[in-house]
């Protein structure tokens, strides 16, 4: 049974089939937002969701059976644990007080595309590894925001109170400038009181937008290379583990065959 499950898991079509189911599930969830489609095909949508959930449960059972009794190989993998958690949450009844949780859990199934596609797993791993570096960049960005917000308040709170009347509003205005969304309107309003206020805005855009964003990109690229190396090492470890399991199975088969031959020879002697 375990060998059969291992063959299923190792087959490339197994992963492709699961990816296709995730996409179908995502399409159905999107179609359920249309009252017209729900009125006409509501029962079909429910049936599809139940079939998809049943297959996901079966998939988890097959993967767990493939590594039995070494369950750590399955639950020790963060992506397997992620998939298993989503499947368990999807089993919450979609009626009563848990109806909203059940709907959100069904939506989480779409996130299984992340674990199903190696490229997406690499991107997520890179982002997770970049969090400590992001913290330092965010701290630098906060210092820049704070300095410019205080300066903007003192320079412009009387002339343009809509954008600079307090420290909090000044920070929101700077965030608007950071997104480059209609920030020139704020600049021209400030320049009507002082024609040299463009220096304040241009310097903030250059420092906060271009420099800091480039720092974010640098952190991500640096951690992307490390994540690639880590994934390569994990893949090698997984290959070695598979080879070891196959060797153990071969040895067990040889021992069983040797035992049967010995019993056969003893029977012939009698």
Number of domains: 2
Number of strands: 0
Q: How far apart, in Å, are the first and last alpha carbons?
A: 35 Å
- Tell me the name of the CATH class of the largest domain: Mainly Alpha
Structural category: mainly alpha
State mean pLDDT (0 to 100 scale).
80
Beta strand %: under 5%
Rounded to an integer, what's the Rg over CA atoms?
29 Å
The biggest beta sheet, please?
Answer: none
- Which residue ranges are poorly predicted, with pLDDT under 50 across at least 5 consecutive positions? none
Q: Return the CATH topology of the largest domain.
A: Helix Hairpins
CATH architecture identity of the largest domain: Orthogonal Bundle
Form type: elongated
Order of helices and strands: HHHHHHHHHHHH
Number of helices: 12
Helical content stands at over 70%
Explain this structure to me?
There is one protein chain. The chain is mainly α and 270 residues long. It has two domains: 2-116, Up-down Bundle (Four Helix Bundle (Hemerythrin (Met), subunit A)); 121-252, Helix Hairpins (Orthogonal Bundle), CATH 1.10.287. Helix content is 85%, strand content 0%. It contains twelve helices and no strands. It is elongated. 14% of the residues are buried. The mean pLDDT is 80.
Task: Map the helices and strands.
Elements lengths: L1 H9 L1 H20 L3 H33 L4 H4 L2 H13 L8 H10 L3 H5 L1 H39 L4 H4 L2 H12 L4 H9 L6 H72 L1
Keywords:
single chain; 270 residues; mainly alpha; Four Helix Bundle (Hemerythrin (Met), subunit A); Helix Hairpins; 0% strand
């Amino acid at each position: 049974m375990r060998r059969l499950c291992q063959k299923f898991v190792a087959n490339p079509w197994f992963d492709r089939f699961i990816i296709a189911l995730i996409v179908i599930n995502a399409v159905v969830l999107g179609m359920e937002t249309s009252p017209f489609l729900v009125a006409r095909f509501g029962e079909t949508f429910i049936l599809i969701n139940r079939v998809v959930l049943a297959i996901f449960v079966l998939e988890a059972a097959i993967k767990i059976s493939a590594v039995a009794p070494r369950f750590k190989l399955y639950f020790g993998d963060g992506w397997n644990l992620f998939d298993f958690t989503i499947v368990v949450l999807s089993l919450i009844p979609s009626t009563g007080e848990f109806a909203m949780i059940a709907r959100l859990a069904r939506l989480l199934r779409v996130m299984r595309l992340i674990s199903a596609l190696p490229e997406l797993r690499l991107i997520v791993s890179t982002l997770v590894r970049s969090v400590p570096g992001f913290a330092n960049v965010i701290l630098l960005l906060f210092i820049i925001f704070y300095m410019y917000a205080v300066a903007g308040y003192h320079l412009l709170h009387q002339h343009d109170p809509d954008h600079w009347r307090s420290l909090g509003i000044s920070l929101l205005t700077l965030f608007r400038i950071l997104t480059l969304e209609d920030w020139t309107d704020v600049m021209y309003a400030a320049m009507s009181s002082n024609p040299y206020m463009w220096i304040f805005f241009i310097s903030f855009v250059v420092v906060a937008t271009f420099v800091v964003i480039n720092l974010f990109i640098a952190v991500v690229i640096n951690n992307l290379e490390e994540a690639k190396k880590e994934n390569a090492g994990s893949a090698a470890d997984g290959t070695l583990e598979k080879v070891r399991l196959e060797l153990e199975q071969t040895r067990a088969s040889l021992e069983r065959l040797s035992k049967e031959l010995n019993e056969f020879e003893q029977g012939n002697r009698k």
